[in-house]
Request: fold
Amino acid sequence: MFQTFDETTRPETGPNRLATLRAELDREGLDGFIVPRADAHQGEYVAPRDDRLAWLTGFTGSAGYCVALRDRAGVFADGRYRVQVRAQVGDVFSPVDWPEVGLADWIAEALPEGGTVGFDPWLHPVEQLRALQAKLPDVALQRVDNLVDRVWEDQPDPPLGAVFAQPENLAGAPHGEKIAQLAEGMEADVAVLTLPDSLAWLLNIRGSDIPRNPVPHGFAFLHAEGRVTLYMAAEKLANLGDHLGDIVTVQPPDAFVPALQALSGSVQIDPATCPVAVTDALSACDIIEAMDPCVLPKARKNAAELAGARDAHLRDGAAMVHFLAWLDAQDPDTLTEIDVVTALEAERRGTNALRDISFDTIAGAGPNGAIVHYRVNETTNRKLAKGELLLVDSGGQYVDGTTDITRTIALGEVGTEEKDAFTRVLKGMIAMSRLHWPAGMAGRDLDAVARVSLWEAGLDYGHGTGHGVGSYLCVHEGPQRLARTGTVPLEPGMMLSNEPGFYREGAYGIRLENLIAVEEAPPLPGQTIKSLLRFKTLTFVPLDLRLILPELLTGPERAWLNAYHAEVEAKIGPLVKGAARDWLSQACRAI
Amino acid sequence: MFQTFDETTRPETGPNRLATLRAELDREGLDGFIVPRADAHQGEYVAPRDDRLAWLTGFTGSAGYCVALRDRAGVFADGRYRVQVRAQVGDVFSPVDWPEVGLADWIAEALPEGGTVGFDPWLHPVEQLRALQAKLPDVALQRVDNLVDRVWEDQPDPPLGAVFAQPENLAGAPHGEKIAQLAEGMEADVAVLTLPDSLAWLLNIRGSDIPRNPVPHGFAFLHAEGRVTLYMAAEKLANLGDHLGDIVTVQPPDAFVPALQALSGSVQIDPATCPVAVTDALSACDIIEAMDPCVLPKARKNAAELAGARDAHLRDGAAMVHFLAWLDAQDPDTLTEIDVVTALEAERRGTNALRDISFDTIAGAGPNGAIVHYRVNETTNRKLAKGELLLVDSGGQYVDGTTDITRTIALGEVGTEEKDAFTRVLKGMIAMSRLHWPAGMAGRDLDAVARVSLWEAGLDYGHGTGHGVGSYLCVHEGPQRLARTGTVPLEPGMMLSNEPGFYREGAYGIRLENLIAVEEAPPLPGQTIKSLLRFKTLTFVPLDLRLILPELLTGPERAWLNAYHAEVEAKIGPLVKGAARDWLSQACRAI
Reply:
């Protein structure tokens, strides 16, 4: 079992840990110290060693900060974690509604006369520090060794997870080819890579330093002459054999800073993610700020990656169908959310191909479904009940692809209000699935299309319609997004989620999610749009027909739904047996 | 008749005029001079005196530039005018596809060694010069008196159009109240106003210095203590009586620059529209750059302005219905586009309330309908023909409101392709008309909603879905737009056009346009969106049922169409008589 359910919060440890940290403030002559959730690689998951925010405050959200001053300590949590943070941190911490209240706003108010606030230059990207300093003209932001690391006695060591080669038939291109192509387009002499999934994609490797995301921690130089220097512990690379080849030179992690200091000429960094400590060490160079050169090519999946995604989704779809068929055969009153998570993970493990789950399964029954990033533990674990909805958002990491799927299931007969909202969410998902658009549009230009039916009823969801997805990499991968913050034009090969929802606080939650990939649409007669794009659906799992009000669907929407279910049955039917096969036929009937 | 149809192009005058301008370059030691279409007020229309671009080059588009160098002269025209500019300018000018090729790109290529290019500081806004200079590090951009004015022997004088008071019952608030409200929110000591429609709105006046837009040329200071200094020729104000009152001090235009030079303290200007000459004169001040303070309050129409708009649209709708009924009774083969324009203007004049047309009527028959900004003249005038489409985009300026309406009409039986495209355009217009959305969305977040049905067929239109509209002011008014460039959140009271289209080059054009106003939607049961907005339709004129393929409409779309036509008949029926009344009933029948 990958997922665990223990309650990790220990509010009682907070006061003492905060007091020892404050003693370090005194020692350094600082008025405060910033503890972000982030590590040096700015990912969604951190290794135990880097979980400083949770260690200090008890708050286990996947984003946030603590700003520890001498007389107060703010814990910054976003909308997803407003309830959670209040339950997890003790009285010595003050929860702050972030980003409505920014770090700078709060610090400026807490230190009206100004002061000196320390930060660890490895944990803050260049742009973040720049924005913070611009808003705090009277506060000196001072680089210091991490004060939490000084007082955290049993802090774990950095992870040494094994690295594996990603087979070329799945990666779609040898890493030498990728390196050569990127090098050709480079303006700088060297690009510094700090994102683990950039390293993984570029070198066709996968790692196991953090949960859920199969990436190795490390740094690299991409040289314009077409070679790479990789800063990574040699013991992690034992399984690789000669995979990396002559084109890649491996150096130990502690050689990274001296190597940065020794660089001259022009060096490219991505200011959105590159730690301040890196640019600090580049004092002898012309720094060019640009997007990490791996990000866009990684986002545009090649034919092998798309084929792998299709295979992974069929395998994962069959596991989902087994799970859904099993669930429908149970009496809801005998099950809890943890039972649901456990059963689903067992089905995925049963494929014998599961490397990890792609994130902790969200299984929210009744009102828990309305908590968008709900993660069940022994304390919150809720019994299922007839007449309620169950929202299950989950995914698997397979060597050929990363999946992410949400289904909302009726437990017995539910009310018309829930069906009306479900049908509107479905109409949004179908609208996005059927959409064609001229090349050049970004996510922000298209996001509303999935919301029109909900808006018509005065309803909405407080998250984007979709996020980018990696290819046996991070389930949340940029730069493309189907959201108002998505400014990157969608290009063929980009994979995204399509996941509109609706949440009635304290009552129920609805979300439907398929993964989709951008592709060129076949030419239409009379077409005037030069490059017409559309989405191809990757996920094949039934949508709960018991929750649909058919009279709310238009003819084309109903046709899409019936065609989708026919395709689900045709593709997944051969992969499931017995009761699940019968259940699938029934679940895929035309309406 | 407001509209004229003469061909104003004289390509033969170009060479001589360009030669005399180049003699001035020699005299000033310049390598070039920039001649924009714009005047000092950055509006869409210019007075004859300011029509320097047309005088020099022959090009009569409503936007563009000429950059006259010693050895070449580029005329910059956007997508609307690519064909026109080539027909209008002689061989001594080189048409440039702008903005694909920017001014800076072209100048940099033409002057690879750098050089000195002159410009008139009254005709270029602060931001424009800043952007141009940033892109031309090797070129000195030098302020000079306008060189065209020196060589244009019979250049007209500045306009002295009469100014009239806008009645308070139509403006909705006395100008003293508007001034007091703006003054209260001011950060600077003085805001310099350079936009004629800002002056008109703020002081409840209308002018007649330029065609189509009832605004007076002038400048003003808005003082933080709640008074205004207006720089405008006294002879224009003879009709005003004591309308302006003690709160407004009138000064002659030539007092403006000395007054700028005499200012001290903080002065607010809008860098997007304020001439460079203004900030040049403000050397003793702290300049605060911010949006013209009139722009947003002017865009949010008050109850009186919205009531006026409704009245104006009913009056204008009745004129349109008379025109459409008349047109349907004619044999198309006996009519030309000019006949159409003339008949329509006659109907509007017949209301006895028409102050001006709000722009030159676009009446495009057959392939001319595909020219988005087509304006018929004696040379292009096309005969109507059975089996073709006729696109008519027109509007009226009434004292209570500005109208703008487009209808596309079948002349006899047309093909299925045209009907399919018409129905998709209609679906887009209906989608926008039915849309509800949470407050905070800008035009760019919503624009796609009107395009989905066209995109589905590989079709699109190369313009925004809608522009802001003034209240007996400019028919194109910012800052709100329904377009990918629309970044200002839509607020209750904002008026916009809703005008999707489709253009098959060389064959036909389709556009449908209603004006709409943003309003709070009535609360819905179970609504979770805090502030739910929608559009209220202002335009009531039938949409041509002969061009609709009913099977392409969904139930809710058909219901909207039938309800719209029922409302058209109920509202406009009482205002039309005889054959037009019968025509209206038939045109508004339910489908």
Remarks:
- The interface with chain B takes residues 417, 431, 434-438, 441, 444-449, 451-452, 455-460, 484, 504, 521, 523-524, 526-529, 532, 554-555 of chain A (CB under 8 Å).
